[in-house]
Target: Phosphomethylpyrimidine synthase
Amino acid sequence: MPTQMARALAGEITPEMKRVAGREGVDPEFVRRGVAEGTIVIPRNRRRKNIDPVGIGTGLRVKVSASVGLAGPGDTIEGEVAKVRAAVEAGTDAVMDLSVYGDIDGARRAVLAATTTPVGTLPVYQALAEAREKYGAAVKMKVDEMFEVIERQAADGVDFLALHCATTLQTLRAAKKHRRVDYLVSHGGSHLMGWMIYNQRENPLYEHFDRLLEICRRYDVTLSLADGWRPGCLADSLDAAQVQELVVLGELVARARQQQVQVMVKGPGHVPLGHLKATVQLEKQLCHGAPYFVFGPVVTDIAPGYDHITAAIGGALAAWAGAEFLCYVTAAEHLGLPGVEQVREGVVAARIAAHAADVAREPRAAQWDLEMSRARKALDWDRQIELAIDPRRADALRRERSRGSHRACAMCGRYCAMQVVGEYLGKEQGVC
Model:
């Protein structure tokens, strides 16, 4: 059966394209053309039944992804599913299961069953964990074992697979030559690089890229090309290793499209504000307009405990510059694993960033803000809470801080500007 991209290239508007167009308020032909060109992806495994298709790419609303996963002895599948539900309630567009420990197969299948959003994974995590259990060391993983895990996850219905295909020996040489501050901060990328050095072999995901594409084509899985050399501190942003990897990523994007496999590129990382626009433009140029899935980006290194804020700043500006997909960052980043509340908070922060960029990119997005402004003018608190990006928090703060006033805000009380001006002009609900 042809892939979503193959059908788009043949001129067919699929049910998934129609659904995306309806959700975005655009013409289905616009979506079909974007999928055919590779500037839009619709992650949707053909084996996945319980999914509401989401479009990611040029001309569409900026999307948000939340990450969960088993990481250690204290984690449970039930606990991770609770995080998934919190993320979905907070409005995430996609979920990634990044489990590295325990019953990884069970966790993935539970996540797939718990949400109708697209679900992504990073299969090398599981391949390395299984090799560690089988051989006592992840570096003893066999190439066939890694590809078996990739196919197992695709067969389960995973919609997009994140893989460090461009973390090559050539990029390692670039990093060594230019002496990075933080060599590799990518979990998957660093372990894969360790395997390459131990075995004195090229990255098998690069060496056997056609084999990977065959799996993606068989299940119509979207490939998310992850960057192992993403900068882990501001000092490494746009260094030789990162840029060299982008060059290789561009080569792989072209190869994936030739095989009619949908593909997006995953990006940095820690990026100073002055580099954000150049980073996005470089990806768009070198990777042929592929949708850009950015981790944050985090715009300063000094805010542990507040990195949901640093990432929201970076995400808004990166999306304004052209990135289309934001991987959330929680307040626990750099410190530990997030709990359910940090997951909710991280999703909301990323959604704020995405919407701020949408308003700058597409005038229609500001209609939501206009409705909120009208509700504020009318002192319609029920409507304001209904329109809030996080109604639960807005309602809780209103109840806690309103000082018993049912009309004015707690900040101004009886001196509420909307109320005073409305009374001055003789109009009960404010200025018309």
Summary: The mean pLDDT is 94. Residues 365-425 form one domain. The chain has 19 helices and ten strands.
